């Protein structure tokens, strides 16, 4: 399954159709564990040369959002399920998933986790049920610029209901 397909985003290539503005998100950096930028030192499969996204420690504004394309409304048979792997630094990282419906200006936070997880890859699946068009926003935040404090994301898959 290549990273350029609609339903899977593994960041091995820059092409990820679910995220049309990936190149316009300077605070997210596409890298692998050998980049010399601190943890994570591998992707969620333990592969040191495989790519993922992490917050760039060089950028002072320590938060970044990643916004999907517009998804069509879900129906009873086809809810939208999104599975993703995430890494949150144990001191000050926060990772959030938000939902923005087309009739609303604000992003509704539907899932979040922060730094009590001990620097490891975890996986989560969220289910979205929306009667109108929507976008999903993945946000990372780091409160301190200490070495090794980061938020990372890898292998986002979208079910056919998305």
UniProtKB/TrEMBL annotation:
SMART domains: MAM
Recorded GO CC terms: membrane
InterPro entries referenced in this protein's UniProt entry, alphabetically: ConA-like_dom_sf, MAM_dom, MAM_domain-containing
Domain MAM: 7-162
Domain of life: Eukaryota
Name assigned to this protein: MALR1 protein
Source organism: Sterrhoptilus dennistouni
């Amino acid at each position: 399954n290549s990273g350029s397909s609609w339903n899977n985003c593994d960041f091995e290539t820059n092409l990820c159709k679910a995220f049309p503005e990936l190149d316009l998100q300077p605070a997210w950096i596409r890298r692998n564990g050998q980049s010399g930028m601190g943890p994570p030192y591998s992707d969620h499969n333990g592969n040191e040369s495989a790519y993922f996204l992490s917050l760039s420690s060089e950028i002072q504004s320590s938060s970044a959002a990643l916004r999907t394309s517009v998804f069509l409304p879900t129906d009873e048979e086809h809810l939208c399920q999104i599975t993703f792997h995430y890494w949150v630094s144990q001191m000050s990282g926060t990772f959030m998933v938000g939902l923005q419906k087309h009739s609303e200006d604000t992003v509704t936070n539907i899932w979040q986790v922060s730094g009590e997880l001990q620097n490891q890859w975890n996986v989560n699946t969220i289910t979205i049920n929306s009667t109108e068009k929507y976008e999903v926003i993945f946000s990372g935040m780091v409160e301190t610029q200490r070495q090794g404090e980061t938020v990372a994301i890898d292998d986002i898959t979208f079910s056919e209901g998305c």
